[in-house]
Structures are given as structure tokens and as C-alpha cells.
Specification:
10 strands
Length: about 280
Amino acid sequence: MVNPDASVTGPAAMPTPELVIDARGIVTRFGKQVVHNGLDLQIRRGDLVALIGGSGTGKSVLLREIIGLHRPDSGSVNLLGTDVWTASPDMLAAVRRRFGMMFQEGALFSSLTVAANVATPLREHFSLPEDLLDELVRLRLALAGLPPDAAGKMPSQLSGGMVKRAAIARAIALEPEVLFLDEPTSGLDPITARAFDKLLTFLNRDLGITVLLVTHDLDSLVGIARRIVVLGQGRVIADGSLAEITAVDDPWIQSYFSSRASLPAPHPTKTENSPRDGA
């Protein structure tokens, strides 16, 4: 099992990357239902972590608690050095400029063009000349693998894959240090989903963005996740590489991975500059 707090000692030791997410003792209740019961999760800078678990284990709820959208009943969440639930409004606003969030359905504003959607966080946090704003939007769209003509389209005119890419472009508008994604490949065909995996690999490996994604997509786990965290029974029941997770003697884990007869070792797909696979 991977211990995120473990470090190598001795003359060849490398500096341990800083924790960017440190959630401890999280308890979450909805009425009589206990979703999290003393849950701990630590993620270091540069990680690409997949969060999995059965229905009702609170994966999406945990994301919302980490970014300050849902307050747990008890426990602490430290994100990028800021205690999310004790920070002042100014401190919380500052940390929110340092992460991006992509919700499951993209959550684009239907009345705004793609360009206007991507520009929204830039307008919210900065006062920029229009020509610079337009240039930044074009850059974010290119990084997300969208063609230039997507900028003037409405969300309703986009394919499912393009909606996801537009949502990513908005999520990285402020050049975030951490990116959160909730079921990013849900509803996508396999070819488009794998292209989206390449995009996430590019953002993580080439741009250095720490990534935490909730997913049920086995191919994403095999293809890009360097670390998998499994939620169950109100806590983290397994944490490690694909090989380590599949070796855990837990009924849900064994049932989940048994749907795939062969599980090759994960290997990041090489990308060039900005991935664009027509998704």
C-alpha cells in the first residue's frame, strides 16, 4: 500500500513533494446516513489520483468538501496550505484562484458562447483588456484541444467530447495548480474518452497540474492513474498503484476489477504539445 507520508532517507533521498490536499478525520452525515466516518486523504503535488468506490461512498461529496462547497460534520480540509473551513473569505477566494473544477456534466453556461464560458473566471478575478482576455481564452481552448472555431459556438452546438474539453478549458483558465474532475469521461464513447485521458495526462505531466478525478472508467484507471484511492465503509479502504489495489482482498474491489479479464500495467500515453484527437 502506498503511504503518501512516507519518505526515503539517506544521502540519495529526494525532497518529498508538498501536500496540496490534506483531509483528516472527515465525518459526513446526511440524516441518519453516515457517508464518511473518519476519512483521511493526502495528495502530494504532481500526483494524478483516481478516486473510486461503490455508489453512496461519497466520492463526489468528498470533492465538494475539499473545494469548500459542502461542509463536513467534522474533520479538517487543508487545500494548498489553507484550511478551507476556517479561512477568511479573502483567503478562501485566494485559494480558489489556484484550483480548477470540472463537474460531471461540464456545467457550462448554456446562454454563453464557449469563449465567454472560458472567460468567466478570468473576468471574475481580474480586470484585463479585452484583447489580452481574448488571447488568453484562445490559449486555454488550444490547450484543451479545441479548434479555434469552437470559441464562437454555443454549448448546445458541441459534441459531448467538445463540451468536456470546453469545461476543461474553463477549469484551467486561471492556470490552476490543482484540477478536480467528477466523472470526466462519463457519457463519452471509448475513442473520445481515451482522447480525454491523453488530455489529462498532458495537463498533469507536461503542465505539472495535480489531478484528482472521480471515475468509474476502468480504462482511465489502467491508462493514466498512477495512484488509485478506494472509498468504502466511510473511509479509504485501499490506496496504491493498480497492481497494489487489485491485490487487495476486498469483495467490492475484486468484483469491480473482475469485469476486466486482463489489466496491463498503467503507462502514460506520450503527447505532443497540446493533444487534439477530435473529441
